[in-house]
Amino acid sequence: MAASNTPYSGVRAKTQIPHHLSSSIVDLGSISFNKSKSNSKKTKIHSTLHSPSVLHFPTQPGTSEEDSSVTVNPKTNRYQPLWNFLQRAAATALDMAEAALVSHERQRPLPKTVDPRVQIAGNFSPVQEQKVRRSLPVTGTIPECIDGIYVRNGANPLLEPVAGHHFFDGDGMVHAMKIEKGSASYSCRFTETERLKQERGRGRPVFPKAIGELHGHSGIARLLLFYARGLCGLLDHTKGTGVANAGLVYFNDRLLAMSEDDLPYQVRITPCGDLETVGRYNFNSQLKHSMIAHPKIDPVSKELFALSYNVVQKPYLKYFRFFPDGKKSPDIDIPLPVPTMMHDFAITENFVVIPDQQVVFKLQEMLRGGSPVIYDKNKKSRFGILNKNATDAKDIIWVESPGSFCFHLWNAWEEPESNEVVVIGSCMTPPDSIFNDYDESLKSVLSEIRLNLKTGKSTRRPIIQESSNHVNLEAGMVNRNRLGRQTNYAYLAIAEPWPKVSGFAKVDLFTGEVKKYMYGNKSYGGEPFFLPTNQNCETEDDGYILAFVHDEKTWKSELQIVNAKNLQLEASVRLPSRVPYGFHGTFIDRRGLVNQA
Ligand SMILES: [Fe+2]
Predict the structure, then answer these.
(1) Domain total for the chain?
(2) Are 83 and 234 in contact (CB under 8 A)?
(3) How does DSSP assign 190-208, residue by residue?
(4) Fewest CB atoms within 10 A around its CB: which of 36, 54, 224, 226?
(5) Average of pLDDT values for 391-395?
(6) CA of 475 to the centre of ligand 1 (A)
């Protein structure tokens, strides 16, 4: 039997996707599919993220009484559609059409990358919301300086998928650990996105899954169904289609939950440590389009820098920033030849660093029966360097960096003496491994890329030199108080055995020395979150690593707090319910909590 805090059929997986990517394909607007260039080529989406066989799921231990007694049902505030007769008839007809489509799809096994039995199994399976539980058992001593709330985002589908589902497609859920005077409390809540509210009201998924469903001819059929439902007034896609499940940032006194296919959602933390969604947040009507889930706050100017990409129409990329008071700068159109996946970017003191890489969107591939997200080997990978304060993109400097594909960029800084911008990222090969199947195993190599602004040349080197000691490093950060400046250390998830995260590494970016902290036998986590001891630490690694860790033997989860200097476990907090593997987090200190808008 599945864990009782799993809201629906829990199957068990071995897979972990260490972070989120979602495209904006659902928001196609007026895209036309009138060129019926049908091709019988069968393209399956597979992923080396799912290299273990799905037929051998680990057995979940039984769930304790404690586990089952603390979960609460999802909110029941239902969206009640008041349909007229014609709408009810249209709804029935469209539901029947969808049922026929699902029936047709079930004649063939789903690829592992979009098979929900794989994607949301084991500790990827969703949990129900958890009301605040206080005074949780603590082993060790929580350092006094930790005073605030650690929040982490993740994908947690409310409704059981009826067709394809990729882990990145799940509804956003925020897990919150409040720490005050050595005492800890925990809660988790869905972010109440517009799609979540409507699907809860219908009791069935009606918004297409951006990755799990939108590929091939079935994907086109689902888009047509989606727009037909919209035209009939059976759903409202004008308020966004995003899941807000990837990133979290605290800016201008607001906690924002983000996925790159929509506006952010504001989530308020209550005095007792609970979470409530305020709503879709457009920065007082200043933001008219989606925003990526990895905006950057400059630790000195306190500005927020961001990008927005479009998979359908030019401009394919926009750059913009917000001043500390929330005022937005005008958009700057960044000229790109093709719509390009851009999950992350970097800042330095003076520049934004924009990765224009080889994983691109080709929607016409759907007509050929394939995925719209492809690896374009003929495209040249490059980085764009643009002054942060630029008012247009005419002075952007593009520096080619052949073969570089970084899903995330951990930091960047300027070295004026050599006219270089140094970029620290994990280079993933093959670049589209998350979407397509390869015989070769995925590698994620922590790399230093040097971009020479004068010569236009670049170099790239692995930071960890020993080839025999390769370790996949993904998901993590530097000390964010030094973002955009030269940093000595990065704290990165050890995605081993890929795609699980068995610990984290503290890497000396100059010597390549690696110190590892492992979560223990059959215990796995995700992004290690570095929390500085205070804002003015003179020593870069003066702080703690916070990580949700799940023990697959006992089926218990905990928060581990590890001293970043010596990698000693300071404290662990036992959680009242399971925390699924998830994506990115942030920390809001006591002053931030008090000042919330
Ligand atoms: Fe990410």
Answers:
(1) 1
(2) yes
(3) E---HHHHHHHHHTS--SP
(4) 36
(5) 92
(6) 7
